[in-house]
Design goal:
- With about 575 residues, this protein is of the alpha/beta class.
- It has 25 helices and eight strands.
- The strands form two sheets. A six-stranded mixed β-sheet has the order 2-3-1-4-5-7, sandwiched between helices. A two-stranded antiparallel ribbon has the order 6-8.
- Helix 5 runs antiparallel to helix 7.
- The radius of gyration is 27 Å and the shape is elongated.
- The chain starts with a strand and ends with a helix.
Length: about 575
């Protein structure tokens, strides 16, 4: 049996899915978190049912790619759990009545039942069940309230076969249902609602956005550096280095396998950024430098997601984003890109038009450095002074704006107005935030570690057989003439295609000046995304548009790198 979990965006489907299947998914307090369907299993008596978490949709007449997926999945379901936001009954019933017109049994999960009570919204569940002709079960996904009853009543799912001749008739029916089952109690504004109003105001919202962005940067850096200073560096210096030195002695302090596994010794010692061994540089870049910032970034992002701030930021950014050919909602995949470009490009599915998805994906690939790259930029360029880090970020931001303006005028198509749901502020559920953090960090390690180790291995071998010397001589005119960089930086720029963090780490032993570090890291950030992002770009945009985006990246990197060489 296939059970579809369907509903409007941001009604708590992913949390219910985790409760029903035990499968951990990433859920957030904004619409569009689920852009692909996810499968899990639920034991029903002696049988095992397959549960599919379908992307959120407001209607069965799709307006975005995520909604297309939802409408297509409807053909495969044997039963539908329609997840309805109890705090927004009228809007949610539009999809419910559309589902009841199909020949598939439906049961309604009236989710966020606790929030409805807090807001003074009273719903007569028995009367609603009678009017819809299907079971209705109040649930609270975050706490698990009502989940047992929902599962026990799945066999009661029914097909009342309602049919409406037009959407007007359907909305009239919705109005009739709501008037019979819902009543409101008088209450005063809470401090959270006052804050909601302030953060949506043009002036107050801009001030709050600035505070949030500054606080976000400071907290990420504080936590990341704290983990490096008190956890990872002591581990590598006090525990890991002695083990590697013993391994080095066992290999005779040199030789092919010594250099592959331990790396070259610098002044008789292991240098974690220069030795380039699998067990030294390979592990240190991943766990000693990048993971601390990945942990801190995803922790802060998870809190911002679950508090409900990001949709308000999207509304504030709407005017600017329209000038770039997008609307405010594109700020959410953009912010996700600061963690990893791969899910960010996938998240562009929430945008309505192909034009918007192309512009958003291209801008993310050019102007939004992932957390791993940022960790290396802050760690390496930051040693020269915070002003140089600011130049790198400023160059990326200005490029992001200018390229967006150009694409807005040159790419054919349309950008629809921003129509999105603004969720209420909620206290972040720490269990959900902890699970999301673990899932994201685990996924990063699982994906990145083999590539980092592979990149270090490839670099080591290519060094040994002299391939990079050959490439460096060919590329020297561009590097030295246009960018003002030594020809040896070609190795790092080439490796950037595999892993940006490894590539930036390879700049460390070159003894570059502050200006050269700024130019090389900016060019590296803009020129190519990593290979994983390329694969997703090809899948989401198609080969033709992916090649167009690549051409834009190369042209932008050459122009900005050349300008920085002239200006600095």
């Amino acid at each position: 049996m296939k059970i579809l979990l369907m509903g409007n965006p941001n009604v708590g489907k992913s949390v219910l899915f985790s409760r029903l299947t035990g499968t951990r998914t990433i859920a957030s307090n904004y619409p569009g978190t689920t852009v692909e369907f996810i499968k899990g299993a639920l034991k029903l008596g002696q049988e095992q049912a397959e549960i599919i978490d379908v992307p959120g949709t407001y209607t069965l007449e799709p307006t975005s790619k995520a909604e297309e997926v939802a409408a297509e999945m409807l053909k495969e379901g044997d039963l539908i759990i329609d997840v309805v936001d109890a705090t927004n009954l009228e809007r949610n019933l539009n999809l419910t009545l559309q589902l009841l017109e199909r020949q598939v049994p439906v049961i309604v999960a009236l989710n966020m039942w606790d929030d409805a009570h807090h807001r003074g919204i009273n719903i007569d569940v028995a009367r609603l069940e009678e009017l819809l002709g299907v079971p209705v079960v109040p649930t609270v996904g975050v706490t698990g309230q009502g989940i047992r009853e929902l599962v026990s009543r799945l066999p009661e799912a029914a097909t009342p076969q309602m049919v409406y001749s037009s959407s007007d008739e359907r909305w009239a029916k919705i109005g009739d249902i709501v008037s019979q089952v819902q009543s409101l109690s008088h209450r005063h504004h809470t401090w959270r609602e006052v804050l909601e109003d302030a953060s949506s105001h043009p002036v107050g919202g801009a001030a709050i956005a600035l505070l949030v962005l500054v606080a976000t940067f400071l907290v990420i850096r504080f936590i990341g550096e704290g983990i490096i200073n008190y956890v990872t560096d002591p581990f590598f210096n006090w525990l890991w280095t002695p083990l590697l030195m013993k391994l080095s002695l066992a290999f005779g302090s040199g030789g092919f396998w010594h250099d592959i596994l331990v790396g070259r010794l610098i002044n008789g010692q292991i240098d974690y950024l220069q030795s380039l061994g699998l067990f030294s540089t390979g592990l240190y870049i991943e766990f000693g430098v990048v993971i601390p910032y990945i942990v801190s970034f995803y922790l802060v992002l998870g809190i911002l997601e679950d508090v409900g701030y990001l949709p308000r930021l999207a509304v504030l950014m709407d005017t600017l984003m329209h000038r770039l050919g997008l609307h405010g909602y594109a700020i959410i995949p953009t912010i996700l890109g600061f963690g990893c470009n791969v899910p960010a490009v996938m998240a562009t599915r929430i945008l309505e038009s192909r034009r918007e998805r192309f512009i958003a994906a291209t801008l993310i690939s050019i102007g939004v450095p992932c957390a791993a790259l940022q960790a290396m930029i802050i760690g390496l360029v930051g040693q020269q002074g915070i002003q140089y880090v600011a130049i790198v970020y400023g160059s990326l931001f200005v490029s992001w704006i200018i390229i967006g303006l150009i694409l807005n005028y040159t790419v054919k198509g349309f950008s629809p107005e921003l129509i999105m749901e603004i969720p209420p502020y909620r206290f972040p559920p720490w269990r959900v935030i902890g699970e999301k953090l673990w899932l994201r960090v685990y996924s990063f390690i699982k994906e990145a570690l083999p590539i980092v180790l592979g990149a270090v291995l490839v670099v080591n071998i290519l060094y040994m057989i002299g391939v990079f010397d050959f490439i460096a001589n060919i590329a020297a005119p561009v590097l030295t003439g246009l960018f003002g960089l030594p020809k040896e930086t070609v190795v790092a720029l080439a490796i950037g295609f595999l892993r940006k963090d490894v590539a930036v780490g390879m700049l460390a032993p070159l003894g570059l000046t502050a200006k050269q570090l700024v130019i090389s890291t900016t060019v590296m950030a803009m020129s190519f995304p990593c290979v994983a992002t390329f694969v997703v770009l090809a899948r989401e945009l198609g080969a033709k548009d992916m090649l167009k985006a690549t051409g834009i990246m190369i042209a932008a990197a050459l122009i900005v790198g050349g300008l920085l060489n002239l200006i600095l």
